Structures are given as structure tokens and as C-alpha cells.
From TrEMBL:
Gene3D superfamilies reported for this sequence: Mannose-Binding Protein A, subunit A
Protein name, as recorded: Accessory gland protein Acp29AB-like
Ranges of residues in domain C-type lectin: 132-235
Residue ranges that the Swiss-Prot or TrEMBL entry lists as coiled coil: 59-127
InterPro entries, alphabetized: C-type_lectin-like (IPR001304), C-type_lectin-like/link_sf (IPR016186), CTDL_fold (IPR016187)
Gene: LOC108047234
SMART domains: CLECT
Highest taxon listed in the record's lineage: Eukaryota
KW Transmembrane helix (keyword) present: no
Keywords carried by this UniProt record: Coiled coil
Chain ranges passing through the membrane: none
Amino acid sequence: MFALLALDHRGYAVPREVHQSVCLLSDAPNQCGAFTLSRLGPLFADMDELKIRLSESKIQAVQERVENNIREVVETEMQAVRNRIQALEETLLSVSKKFEGQLQSSLDRMQDQLKAVQNKLERDSVTGLKDIPPNFELIGSRYFYIEDKVWQNFTTAASTCRQMGGYLASIKDEEELNLIRMKLENEEPYWLGTNDHKEKGSFVSLASGKPAFLNIDLENMMMYDCDLESYFICQADKEI
């Protein structure tokens, strides 16, 4: 056993039980404070670490929220951009198709016009004509107008053909005669420009004065009195 002496606050010795331990402090405030601080130090350290962890957790949570918000904003903007790009692509596709259609239509018209010009040049090279009078149609290699509504005598019919820009027609050959006959809608007679006014028995074209085809032995060709009225046929050229 040990015996220790402790002083009360007045400096008197205070007896203690033999089995009790007594601590004699020479500098109680400093010694007890140091003891207390030494015991509380780890607790303070734990509290600081806890604060740090809590701060880090809050920072991480805030950071995650910020990142999520940024991600949502970016995704929303990206989707809006994708939508605008898609709309632009659809618009461009529509404009492209429309432009292609217009271009194709223009090309088709140009091709038709070119073909018409080529056909006209080919016809002109055959007939020697540059301008075809209205209502004349190509029959064989030449242009003719068939009047099957109005009856006129020879002189009036010839004048009418001239007013239309042509001449009372003369036939080149039997092949051309057959082609013209296929165009006639009735069995009535038609005036032709073949005549022998200058020299009896010498039949020439009223348009050119050249010899014209005439075969009175054919069933469909005959001589006719010039004063009688009939339908008539005009030609556009002076080839015959």
C-alpha cells in the first residue's frame, strides 16, 4: 500500500483511505488542461475529419448535381441542334427534288423544242420552205391544205390558196396522189392547180409552171369545167 498526502484548498492535509490513490499536482491548471487537451485531441481530429468528409460529400453532391444539370442542358441543346439539322436536311431534299423536277421539265421542253427545230429543218430541206402556212399538213414530202367545207370554182379556189400563203395544188406523182386520197373524207371532187390554159393539152402546175402529173385514165383524175364549184386542195411550195 502507498500513502499519499493531498492538500485541500486551504493547504491542510486531508487524510485518505490507504487503498485510494492521491495525485499531488504542483501546477493543476496547466497540468489538467494539458491532460484534457491530450484526451480531447483525437476527438477534435475526428471531428475535423468528419467535417472534411461532410464537406467533400456536399461538394461531391453539388458537383454531381451541376454535372447532371450541365449534361441535361447539353443533351437538350444537342437534340435541338439535331432537330434543326434534320429539318434543314428535309428542306434541302425538298428543294433539291423541286429543282430537279423543274430542271428536268426545262430539259424536256428544250429537247422538244430542239426536236421541233430539227424536224422543221428536215422538212424545209425536203420542201424548200422556211415558213409553213397555218393549217397546212405534211403529206408525204410536201405540205397541203384540204378544203372540204366550202365549194368554189377554179379561179376563186386558186385565189383562196394564195391568200392562205400557198397555191392551188398540183400532184407530183401517183404515189403522192394516193397519199392525198387517203386524207380525203368524202368522194366529192377537189380542184387541183394542174391546167392547160396556156397551151391546150400541155398540163402544167399553176404554182410553178412546171409539168405536173396528170393521168386522166385513172378513175380518180378527170378534166373539169373551171366555172363549176368544188372543194379544193392547196400546196405550200412551188416545187411542182
